[in-house]
Design a protein that fits this description.
Chain lengths: ~110, ~425
């Protein structure tokens, strides 16, 4: 088994303009995801939007996210899966109505 | 002394003759068995790089061992046994050889058994995994299944060797780090995954069939590799209609190979090819495969493309080609594979079925397709229809445009000839 991080990238403007129904259905989607894949999920959190981010490069502190992109990192799941195919199958169930997800293998140092 | 010299040279000749026969046997085994040997060795090493080293080593040993003991009855099995033994030996001797990257399979294969499993399907699905970019899929397939060196793969795709080396290294690293599985996908995912594999083989074939640039029209090496791969897939997935369709397409198109270029290097279109020199054995094989591929409903993309090739293969002459049948097949193809290039071919068929005026109208409907903007065949097809309609100034402009858009020298010469055959403005 291996661990993967599922990073949820979405258009923050769309979320800022979204109505309650969009929030509700996405929340429901996450609940359903947690129920379906509970045994694989090792952790996961939602993040505040990237305008709350602070970046630090070589000690210099700046306001804002590390990279300005149209789609910002809005949350993540840490999951366990046998291989990339299984991880992708799980990641496809993560709700991300205004974007998508990225699957990254967790690196292990012995 | 002179007698001695003669004896030695006779012996030398004998030795070099056997030596060259052994070298040929090793080369043949390299082409036919590389993928089989590597796929089976990965089962032991669970690491592609280490497996490649061991397989390389086995081929090097074959050169010397087969020289002294003769070529074994089953070269693939011999090579696999040697490669796997070498792998086990290395793994036992030096645990640090186990890569720092994760291993491909949870459990290694137990010690080599007399019966060697055919793991080529695992290897091909790993190489053509959708999590790898398509250029990487193509490169890995050529390298791991066909045994091409990085330099050969780089040459095939006209990129520098360091670029290709970086592409292959990155892909292998991703396979290990992200754990792209070394297994045949589940039945539910299989059709989609087979499609990815067939796309890679088809891309190899089309790249070889009309080289994007350079002095020769055909890259014979790539065509042969694509044909080998399609035959391998047919052997491994005998009941898959799409596999039958792709093999049919390649076999039928390749049946015309000796007639596509004239003795003086000029490009010959289907209309001008000597049909008596088409490979009738290949055509018969291809048509039997098309029938099988079309049995699945609805027929897949490759089955329809092969059926189109079959209509040309069966036509006794260009004039006797069943263009209406072709337009019908292109219509079906566009339904499942709506691509501007297919639409272009359909428009050309329409021109032959109902006249250059209709053909030109169908082509002009495609003029706004961004994908065709840099595509020389659109301009060339327009030029032909304009010439037939006697609109010579426009034909001239269209040939000139087509000339600017192709870098294949055989195609360029063909277009230049057509342009020169028009009466001066």
């Amino acid at each position: 088994m291996a661990e993967y991080l599922i990073l949820i990238y979405e258009d923050e403007k769309s979320w800022a303009n979204a109505d309650k129904a969009a929030y509700d259905s996405t929340l429901e989607g996450h609940n359903a995801f947690a129920e379906k894949h509970g045994s694989a999920i090792r952790g996961g959190k939602a993040l505040w939007a990237s305008d709350t981010a602070t970046s630090i490069r070589q000690g210099a502190v700046t306001d804002g996210p590390f990279a300005e992109t149209k789609e910002g990192l809005g949350g993540y799941y840490l999951i366990e899966a046998a291989n990339l195919d299984d991880a992708i199958a799980i990641a496809k169930d993560v709700p991300a109505p205004f974007g998508g997800v990225e699957v990254r293998p967790i690196r292990v140092f012995d | 002394m002179s007698e001695n010299v003669f004896e030695e040279s006779a012996a030398g000749r004998r030795a070099s003759r056997t030596h060259s026969q052994v070298a040929a046997a090793v080369a043949e085994a390299h082409r036919r068995e590389w993928g089989f040997v590597l796929a089976a060795t990965v089962r032991v090493t669970r690491d592609i790089d280490l497996a490649e080293e061991c397989v390389q080593d086995a081929y090097a040993r074959a050169l010397s061992t087969w020289d002294s003991r003769g070529v074994p009855a089953n070269p693939g099995a011999w090579l696999t046994t040697v490669a796997r033994r070498r792998a086990l030996d290395l793994l036992r001797r030096d645990a640090s050889l186990r890569a720092r990257l994760p291993l491909l399979l949870d459990e290694p294969d137990p010690a080599p058994q007399p019966e060697i499993p055919d793991d080529r399907l695992r290897l091909v699905f790993t190489c053509c995994h959708p999590a790898l970019a398509q250029p990487a899929q193509v490169a890995l397939t050529l390298r791991l299944l066909c045994g091409l060196t990085t330099a050969e793969v780089a040459h095939a795709f006209l990129v520098s060797e360091p670029t290709m080396a970086a592409r292959i290294t990155r892909a292998k690293k991703k396979i290990a780090a992200a754990r792209i599985p070394y297994e045949v996908p589940q039945a539910a995912a299989l059709p989609e995954r087979i499609e990815a594999v067939l796309t890679v083989v088809h891309l190899l074939y089309t790249t070889g069939h009309t080289a994007p640039a350079g002095a020769s029209l055909v890259r014979r090496d790539l065509v042969e590799r694509a044909l080998d791969l399609a035959r391998m897939l047919r052997q491994l997935l005998p009941s898959d209609a799409d596999v039958a369709g792709l093999l049919a397409l390649i076999v039928l198109t390749d049946a015309r190979r000796s007639t596509r270029v004239a003795d003086d290097g000029r490009l010959l279109l289907l209309a001008d090819q000597d049909r008596s020199r088409w490979d009738q054995g290949a055509i018969a094989e291809g048509i039997a495969l098309v029938r099988e591929a079309l049995r699945r409903r609805p027929p897949g993309r490759f089955a329809l493309m092969a059926a189109i090739a079959a209509v040309h293969a069966e036509a006794p002459s260009w004039g006797d080609t069943d263009w209406r049948e072709l337009v019908g097949l292109y219509d079906l193809l566009i339904d499942i594979w709506p691509s501007p290039v297919v639409a272009l071919n359909r428009a050309v068929a329409v021109g032959f079925a109902s006249g250059p005026c209709d053909g030109l109208a169908a082509l002009d409907a495609l003029a706004a397709e961004p994908q065709l903007a840099g595509y020389g065949y659109l301009a060339a097809a327009r030029a032909d229809f304009l010439r037939q309609l006697g609109r010579l100034d426009e034909a001239r402009t269209a040939y000139e445009e087509a000339l600017m858009l192709t870098e294949n020298e055989v195609e360029r010469r063909f277009l230049a000839d057509r342009l020169a055959s028009l009466p001066p403005p």
